[in-house]
Amino acid sequence: MSINRRQFIKIAGISTxxxxxxxxxxxxxxxxxxxxxxxxxxPKALTAKRWAxxxxxxxxxxxxxxxxxxxxxxxxHNVPELGNPKDEIKWIWKETYEHAFPGQEHEYLTEGIKxxxxxMLCNHCDNPPCVRVCPTKATFKRKDGIVMMDMHxxxxxRFCMAGCxxxxxxxxxxxxxxxIKEENKEFPTRMKGVxxxxxxCYERLAKGLIPACVEASQExxxxxxxxxxxxxGDLSDPNSEVRRILSSHFSIRRKSELGxxxxxxxxxxxxxxx
Amino acid sequence: MxxxxxxxxxxxxxxxxxxxxxxxxxxxxxxxxxFYGLGITGMSRDVSWGVYIGQFTFLVGVAAAAVxxxxxxxxxxxxxxxxxxxxxxxxxxxxxIMCMLFIFVDMGQPLRVLNVILxxxxxxxxxxxxxxxxxxLLLNVLLGWTILGAERKGMPPPTWIKPFIYIAIAWAPSIxxxxxxxxxxxxxxxxxxxxxxxxxFLASAFAAGPALIIILCLIVxxxxxxxxxREAIQAxxxxxxxxxxxxxxxxxxxxxTAFYSTIPGHMHPFDYLYVGLDGYTKLVPMMWLSSxxxxxxxxxxxxxxxxxxxxxxAVASVAVFFSLWIxxxxxxxxxxxxxxxxxxxxxxxxxxxxALITLGVWAVxxxxxxxxxxxxxxxxxxxxxxxxxxxxxxx
Lengths: 274, 395
Ligand code: SF4
Ligand code: SF4
Description:
Shape of chain B: globular
Number of helices of chain B: 14
Number of helices of chain A: 10
CATH topology of chain B: Formate dehydrogenase/DMSO reductase fold
Distance between the termini of chain A: 37 Å
CATH class of chain B: Mainly Alpha
Order of helices and strands of chain B: HHHHHHHHHHHHHH
Largest interface: A-B, 52 and 46 residues
CATH class of chain A: Alpha Beta
Number of strands of chain A: 10
Strand order of the largest sheet of chain A: 8-1-10-9
Number of strands of chain B: 0
Distance between the termini of chain B: 24 Å
Helix content of chain B: over 70%
CATH architecture of chain B: Up-down Bundle
Mean pLDDT of chain B: 94
CATH topology of chain A: Alpha-Beta Plaits
Number of domains of chain B: 1
Oligomer: heterodimer
CATH architecture of chain A: 2-Layer Sandwich
Number of domains of chain A: 1
Low-confidence stretches of chain B: none
Mean pLDDT of chain A: 86
Largest sheet of chain A: 4 strands, mixed
Structural class of chain A: alpha+beta
Helix content of chain A: 25-40%
Bound molecules: iron/sulfur cluster
Shape of chain A: globular
Strand content of chain B: under 5%
């Protein structure tokens, strides 16, 4: 993305008028026109037109299957364990069918589905209300469909939490650092007063790695000799694994009637894929 | 004119220092919040906005309500409002300032507040809200000050002020419509996702604001020599009668849509607010208090004899004000978050620090209001006759 001379002068000028000086002009430029992961692209980086995930709950059987996945995410992303639901911060977690898909439940559901946990995470909506409402562009959508957070720009107004119909966002009600069990030095910790959520592991994709949750699920499946419960890929590529699964299985998305176009698909059941 | 704020009775100074003390307490708790984080409030992952945003919403309405005096006066030449138009404008100023303070104390990273201007985001309603609120504040400072200054000199207001008056009249509803749009456009929040939200906001604002102006007029008459005029107060009484009827009707429309359609998502927030949901009933007593106050106020207002009696009118105004303060400053915001996005109930109740910070912000508003009203009433006492040659002070 290039910025021509005139634009540069204009922005530098505006920032100077606002008393910010040259450094801020550069700062503004970086934040507005470049995405964090893109200024020094790694040749190994995984790229896509629209990233998406398929959650096949029939492949997730035991309590440990879920725990592995959730822990993998929360560990690499320094998600604190605050120990109370009021301050809770979570990127990926479990909900039962009636809470994950409110309005879809009915009395005569099979016992299997009724008590089956579903994994919840940010849907990286194609038409994300959280991005629409954010007054500072601290929440923004990348070209590959990832809905990202700039924790340094977020003012903590929590409009995005009111706007997200999926309860995907958490706020740092207090300093989270003392509550991080084991800090991963490679991923930033957050400060109090900002919002956070799943980012589809943009930092791993940039290094050529698949998201932590998907990796955990693949490893567990390999050990058990089964298929993984989480599959990740490019929705715009007809040959991707996610597309192959979606074209051969019945899938649902959360609250699709709201038009946010979630990129996380759920498969409830049955036969093997891929 | 500012100097008039510095000369006052002991009562005046007593009030000023009382308010300063409350502000001090609020500020100390704000510092605690500043260093610890918003975790000292009752807000949570599920109910992520609480009493701060509620007060903000309510006060935008109070600020906008100045138009209910300014419009009849300037557009319909309703002379009786000549004396109190400045009072209405001077109420709008502290109201907008309180709105801004409530937004500020609600922010997780208040030092980054300028990001809203540094990264202007026209697709965010909050960005527009900031613009219209700031504009409205400037307009009211300009109008109130210029008009009062002219009155002091015994001159008609300068003609260049006219266009600003008309702009302010059109601007007032916009601040509250935009505020309603903060809520009314969010997918998945059933209580808010309703086209009548903006209309309901305006109706409740145009009831609560003038109700407060009535109360303030009565206080001013009691404690200063300035008399806002019986007819003006009576006319405001009629205004709140109609707007309160509209407000109750609009709420009724919402309830009808929810419960005749029986769509669960639409019914649940109302269930939670008025009867409790899944056994959670924290807000029920408050909401019924609000309803009882609303109905009692309407009974008093609809009977012309009671409305004409200033004591019952005062009682009705207080009832209108508190009814709407509960409904809009609390229930409407919390109800939007309960049940949460997973159809689970997680309750909210403000903590003591949160309540004291809220009180502190109100005290800032009342301090500014007291000073502005002191200036206005002193000027009016000196001028003796209003613009139309009627005595505006009690003998
Ligand atoms: S799930 Fe929520 S946070 Fe994630 S993109 Fe959609 S609206 Fe935004
Ligand atoms: S809390 Fe942060 S990310 Fe969310 S809307 Fe406000 S500024 Fe944007």
